[in-house]
Amino acid sequence: MKVVLFGAGEVCDSFIKRLPSRFSILAIVDNNECLHGKFKGQFPIISPNDIHIYKPDFIILSCLRRHVSDICAQLTKLGLDDLYLPFPYDEESEIKDRKKQEAEGLIGRDLIDHIIESKNVNGSVFYHISLADNYLECRKKYISRPVERFLHIGSGHSLGVEIYSILRYGGEWTAIEPFPVLGDKYPLHQHVSMIKELMGVFNVPCRIYDDIVLNTNAESFRFHDNHSARLNYFPDKKLEDFHDDKKYDVCYSCAVIEHVSDIESFVTKTYELLASGGFAFHWIDLRDHRDFSRPLDFLKIGKSEWCEYYGHAGHFLHGNQLRYSDYRKIFLQHGFRIVAEEIYMKNDKEYIREVSFDFADEYASLTWGDLEVAGVLFVLEKPSHDS
């Protein structure tokens, strides 16, 4: 039985050793053009476009599972998908890959799309899983003590961050979303099952055996497991209207604050909800949300005019036109200590020069730093009583 192997990496070596004697290897296929014309042992490495020249009986994929769907799609385009012969995976290579991906923190949407269908009617769960990993990495960077109570402000259309974090890390998460849209049709059980399946695929440490139960009432959805990990979800609730007798260790927001019209009340409430010594992580997108390719164009519009036409559309557009230094000043004025400021996006210098000539009067004197910063993470601490 004449076959070609698709994939010339380390996994291929294992396949060559494991193939039964009835298989005769004609060549090894790889998408890396630098390998074409070379040999792996006695076997030539060829382009996928040359498979037909060898006239194999079957094509066996000698690669990691996360590449399988891409290669199968490629074979379909080449008209060779009927030659694909499934073959048992190399478990040792798969285990090494899982550990590598886990160590590199790559459990996220780009990786998972190749294995599990990531979409449901409400978007990608795995986008929110990658956010949860980013949150954890950032939290570890700035907080060394244990954290039990989390507040996610503006959880969006998915509770993937919270469910994933509860399964993996435990603790108690509260999510607030003033514009949930989905109402009581939210597929919470579906998210739980998808995330559990994902964790199984990547061997992610978590308490899979915990039974997460959904209860509903007029105010919130609540998850709880046998170890007291829980999720409280408050839809249709603005932060300013949210109350809790217990304080939070950490609060997060991601691309939320720029949508808030009353930023003073927002920051005051965040400070109030945090425990003494608690931390706030705010990722802020400072670009004009009407057109991200023109990130400063909204500064052509004066503050009063912007408030009149756009200030109450905060769930879609900016509720404010604040810049980097404005947020910094407000955080300090309300008692926060700024632990870190990480700029993660910058505006193009040529574009800044072009657009700044047309700014409204109140923005004409903005500093270069305020105009250049397009996205920033603020890490804030509520000072402890004894500091």
Secondary-structure blueprint:
Elements: E1 2-6, H1 10-18, E2 24-29, E3 39-40, E4 43-46, H2 51-54, E5 58-61, H3 68-77, H4 91-103, H5 109-112, E6 119-120, E7 123-124, H6 125-142, E8 149-153, H7 160-169, E9 172-177, H8 188-202, E10 213-216, E11 221-224, E12 230-235, E13 248-254, H9 263-273, E14 274-285, H10 303-309, H11 324-333, E15 337-346, H12 349-355, H13 368-372, E16 373-381
Parallel strand pairs: 1-2, 1-5, 2-4, 8-9, 8-13, 9-12, 13-14
Antiparallel strand pairs: 3-4, 6-7, 10-11, 11-12, 14-16, 15-16
Helix pairs in contact: 6-7, 7-8
Structural commentary:
The chain is of the alpha/beta class and 387 residues long. 32% of the residues lie in helices and 23% in strands. It is built from 13 helices and 16 strands. It has a nine-stranded mixed β-sheet, sandwiched between helices. A five-stranded mixed β-sheet has the order 3-4-2-1-5, covered by helices on one side. A two-stranded antiparallel ribbon has the order 6-7. The longest helix has 18 residues, at 125-142. The termini are far apart.
Overview features:
single chain, 387 residues, alpha/beta, nine-stranded mixed sheet, five-stranded mixed sheet, 32% helix, elongated
